[in-house]
Amino acid sequence: MMPSTPLERLLAIEELGQLKSRYCRLLDTKRWQEFRALFADDCVFEGMGNLPVSASVDTFVNHVARRHTHTITAHHCHMPEFRFLSDTEARGIWAMEDFVEWQGVEHVSPDWTGYKGFRAYGHYEEAYRRGDDGQWLFSFMRLTRLRMDGVPADAPAPRAGAIKASADWL
């Protein structure tokens, strides 16, 4: 059964958008415990670097945390499309752009020799499931890339904003 009224559908779409917003913010601000809470325990991941498809959620979160310990990242997701499979299951596609810059470490991949990071464009293909508490969680996530552009090692150093994100703003 799908969301039965236009209002229920709009509320579910807004809830899914909030979930994806939290994903990007918590990833970029490296708040790994809260980031972990966004995923169903049996979530499956594809296209996440060298992470095996059979990896658990905890393995995924630890992998992402380890890869981004010494990075500046900015993830943007927009223009979502959703399809509801039932009241408790949905699928979505998000256009995405991310910026990753390694700080004080060499990237180990020979593909990135001479670069200190990248900007990439692609899509997230996702499945969602409502948890027992009624909140939407990710149950599948695939990252596809259309293009990746290297940030040359001699690019200007980053300038941080004057104010950092507030962990307890909301």
How much strand?
A: 35-45%
In terms of quaternary structure, what is this? single chain
CATH class: Alpha Beta
Backbone CA Rg? 17 Å
Q: Would you tell me the structural class of the helices and strands?
A: alpha+beta
Output the strand order for the largest sheet. Answer: 1-5-4-3-2
**CATH fold-level topology:** Nuclear Transport Factor 2, Chain: A
How far apart are the first and last residues' alpha carbons, in Å?
Answer: 33 Å
Shape estimate = globular
Helix content: 10-25%
* CATH architecture type: Roll
Which stretches are low in confidence, meaning pLDDT under 50 for 5 or more residues running? Answer: none
How many distinct beta strands?
5
Please provide a written account of the structure.
This protein has 170 residues and is α+β, with helices and mostly antiparallel strands. It has one domain: Nuclear Transport Factor 2, Chain: A, CATH 3.10.450. The protein has three helices and five strands; from the N terminus they run ααβαββββ. The chain has helices at 6-28, 32-36, 57-67, and strands spanning 39-46, 71-84, 89-102, 115-130, 136-152. A five-stranded mixed sheet has the order 1-5-4-3-2, covered by helices on one side. A hairpin with a 4-residue loop joins strand 2 and strand 3 (89-102). The longest helix is centred in the N-terminal third of the chain and has 23 residues, at 6-28. The mean pLDDT is 91.
